[in-house]
Design a protein that fits this description.
The complex is a heterodimer of chains A (117) and B (109). Chain A starts with a strand and ends with a strand. Chain A is an all-beta fold and 117 residues long. Chain A has no helices and eleven strands. In chain A, 0% of the residues lie in helices and 53% in strands. In chain A, the strands form two sheets. In chain A, strands 2, 4, 5, 6, 9, 10 and 11 form a seven-stranded mixed beta sheet that branches. Chain B is an all-beta fold and 109 residues long. In chain B, 0% of the residues lie in helices and 50% in strands. Chain B contains no helices and eleven strands. In chain B, the strands form two sheets. In chain B, strands 2, 4, 5, 6, 9, 10 and 11 form a seven-stranded mixed beta sheet that branches. A four-stranded antiparallel beta sheet of chain B has the order 1-3-8-7, with no helix packed on it. Chain B is globular. The mean pLDDT of chain B is 97. The chains are: A mainly beta (117), B mainly beta (109). Chains A and B meet through strand 5 and strand 10 of A and strand 4, strand 5, strand 9 and strand 10 of B.
């Protein structure tokens, strides 16, 4: 079971970024995928989750209107798109699978998104 | 806005015992918040040690245990080892959202 994320990105302020998270080793549609970010030297921040089976999403209030989580079940991949990027969106973005029993494992390796002019 | 509070930092001697706590601004933490405890070392992704209050993974050392204590979720490390020095985060479930605590930097000294 593993989650493999797309590579690092550098974006300008105001642009959008889309990070992918490819799942393998399990039935993709059976488990929520969550997205978590960590700014440099800071703590973990839950952004939201997607139900890969239905496509239903829940977003943290802070990210309502700026984040969109989607999935493509044909390739077992979840996506997180963040729009209207600001400098303080610079962070490592992680995806994580929610297991039965309310557990988060495994995690992707993380994707560094740098917002810079 | 819901806030989850952890001790910013704690120091423990090797071989000692330390308890980290996780409080919710909404009131007492119960099992219905499904507390999860993560360990994170620099440059690595977090890894869950404890889930649903007190359940361990196969890789969780026996010296780690989770509980509810005085209205908070708690992570207790017994017989602390130098390799336990890390950042620890709790995560709580609020129905349609999850919220992380700010993290506890544990120093083994």
């Amino acid at each position: 079971v593993q989650l493999v994320q797309s590579g690092a990105e550098v974006k300008k302020p105001g642009a959008s970024v889309k990070v992918s998270c490819k799942a393998s080793g399990y039935t993709f549609t059976a488990h929520y995928i969550h997205w978590v970010r960590q700014a440099p030297g800071q703590g973990l921040e839950w952004m939201g989750r997607i139900n890969p089976n239905s496509g239903a999403t829940d977003y943290a209030q802070k990210f309502q209107g700026s984040v969109t989580m989607t999935r493509d079940t044909s390739i077992s991949t979840a996506y997180m798109e963040l729009s209207r990027l600001k400098y303080d969106d610079t962070a490592v973005y992680y995806c994580a699978r929610q297991n039965f029993g309310y557990d988060f494992d495994p995690w992707g390796q993380g994707t560094l998104v740098t917002v810079s002019s | 806005q819901t806030v989850v509070t952890q001790e910013p930092s704690l120091t423990v001697s090797p071989g000692g015992t330390v308890t980290l706590t996780c409080a919710s601004s909404t009131g007492a933490v119960t099992s219905g918040y499904y507390p999860i405890w993560f360990q994170q070392k620099p440059g690595h992704a977090p890894r869950a040690l404890i889930y649903s209050t007190n359940n361990k993974h196969s890789w969780t050392p026996a010296r780690f245990s989770g509980s509810l204590l005085g209205g908070k979720a708690a992570l207790t490390l017994s017989t602390v080892q130098p390799e336990d020095e890390a950042e620890y985060y709790c995560l709580l479930f609020y129905g349609d959202a999850w919220v992380f605590g700010g993290g506890t930097k544990l120093t083994v000294l």
